[in-house]
Amino acid sequence: MSASLSNIPSFDLKRNYARVENEIKDAIERVLASQHFIMGPEVAAFEEEAAKYLETSYAVSCASGTDALVLALMAEGVGPGDEVITTPFSFFATVSCITRCGATPVFVDVDPVTYNIKMDDALAAVTPRTKAVIPVHLFGQLCRLEEIAEDLKRRNVTLIEDCAQAFGAHRLADGKIVRAGGWGEYGCFSFFPTKNLGAYGDAGMVTCVAESARDELARLRVHGSATTYKHDVIGINSRMDALQAAILRVRLRHIETWVEDRREVARRYALLFAERGLLEAITIPVEDAGNRHTYHQYVVRAEKRDELMRFLAEKGIVTRVYYPLSLHLQPCFAYLGHKSGSMPVSERLTDEVLAFPVFPELTMEEQERVADAVAEFYRGVCR
After folding, report:
1. pLDDT, tens only, 133-149
2. Can you tell me the distance from the alpha carbon of 3 to that of 13, in angstroms, rounded to the nearest whole number?
3. pTM over 0.85
4. Residue 1 three-state SS
5. Less CB within 10 Å around the terminal CB: N or C of the chain?
6. Of 235, 178, 233, whose CA–CA distance to 60 is shortest?
7. Is the CATH number of domain 255-382 3.90.1150.10?
8. What region, left, alpha or beta, does residue 93 occupy, with left being phi > 0 and alpha being psi -120 to 50 degrees?
9. CATH 3.40.640.10 placement within the chain
């Protein structure tokens, strides 16, 4: 790498912090002055503001995105003997939350274009033991939930959206716009620092429609206690810190700008790769009709993926693979009996996908460097 060129990170939190530094410091100072650090007014205010933004009835904060999924399953009484249908092409927590509740994950392969779970196959996988379906709005693009939501309701199967990567995403379907977290009985969000709406530590949230679900989630997150020292059920400790809530309240005010910045980055990548004749060597993301893709990750499918990744690293360009091993083939899930080839699309994606740098502050010049390096690589391998 030339000494005059700096690395291009996959995500740069420092640049984003610079845009809101003063607001963040004011928010932190407000919490320090209050000396109220767990739950409390800041958390309640964030829950109200997030619910309003997401156009959902209720939002219940928690300690992480993983806990959000666990709490939703616990609230529905999911346990041993139950099946939960989900995708094999996702972060580990999507499935581990099912097994933590004692239920059995049932994998359904994904669409090769959107990388999201195939809706018709998910419906076909429903059995009398199916308690819930967890579709993942992967990389910031919503699933076509209008295709299954009503059928699941008729079959008394709970729809739990994994929205960890999709805060700010929405979909136009049947003449109305519905945001991530607004289709199912529950929507589960992660506020890990690199997410579109990220905290400065771990934090999460569950949205829900029913007041009874809100009350159950609120009870479960504090050891199953609705009244101090009285425990009606066995819950978990999953409370949000007031500091994280205050930070998230600041960042929520800017989320629309940052999502549009990400979408502009995606538009520039598409133009740059097309201009360099790269669209046969790499398959760029496709925004499904009706979707507002937030590009939490900008993931392409690339020929000679591993060689390209190493070449870009030599050029100071950081790329990542989401995900290198399909979940049905993870060693800890071997007891489910899946073999190589049982989820062919997911398995093929693990060999081809590559995430390029994407964040709101990524510059045109940096994107040109990425595109030029990709073009240089493929000129070399095709000679």
Report:
1. 999 999 999 999 999 99
2. 23
3. yes
4. coil
5. C
6. 235
7. yes
8. alpha
9. 14-108+115-252
d(CA 8, CA 31): 35
3-class secondary structure, 159: strand
Whole-number Å distance between alpha carbons of 380 and 383: 5
**What is residue 79's three-state secondary structure?**
coil
- φ, ψ (nearest 5 deg) of residue 219: -75, -45
Would you say how long the chain is, in residues?
383
Please tell me the predicted confidence (pLDDT) of residue 4.
53
DSSP classification of residue 307: H
CA distance 298 to 38: 35
DSSP-assigned states of every residue in 300-348: EEETTHHHHHHHHHHTTB--B-S-SS-GGGSGGGGGG---TTSSHHHHH
What is the DSSP annotation of 72-127?
Answer: HHHHTT--TT-EEEE-SSS-THHHHHHHHTT-EEEE--B-TTT-SBPHHHHHHT--
| DSSP per-residue codes, 197-265 | S--SS--EEEEES-HHHHHHHHHHTBTTEEETTEESS---B-PPBHHHHHHHHHHHTTHHHHHHHHHHH
The alpha carbon dihedral of 345, 346, 351, 356 has a sign of: positive
In words, the CATH class of domain 14-108+115-252 is: alpha beta
Taking 50 as the pLDDT cut, the residues of the chain under it are 1-3, 383
Token pair listed for 146: 């209008």
**CATH 3.90.1150.10 domain locations along the chain:** 255-382
| φ, ψ (nearest 5 deg) of residue 182 | -105, 0
Give residues with Cβ within 8 angstroms of 200, minimum separation 6: 24, 193, 243, 244, 247
- pLDDT for the residue numbered 225: 83
Who's near 235: CB < 8 A, 6+ residues apart? 74, 219, 220, 221, 222, 223, 224, 225
pLDDT of residue 382: 56
Please report, as a single letter, which amino acid is at residue 283.
Answer: T
Q: CA-CA distance, 171 to 180, in Å (whole number)?
A: 8
- pLDDT the model gives residue 2: 47
C-alpha gyration radius of the chain: 21
Distances (CA, A) of 51 to 37, 178, 208, 308: 22, 13, 9, 42
Which residues lie below 8 Å from residue 377, measured CB to CB, with a gap of 6+?
Answer: 307, 308, 311, 312
Q: Which helix (H) or strand (E) holds 17?
A: helix 13-34
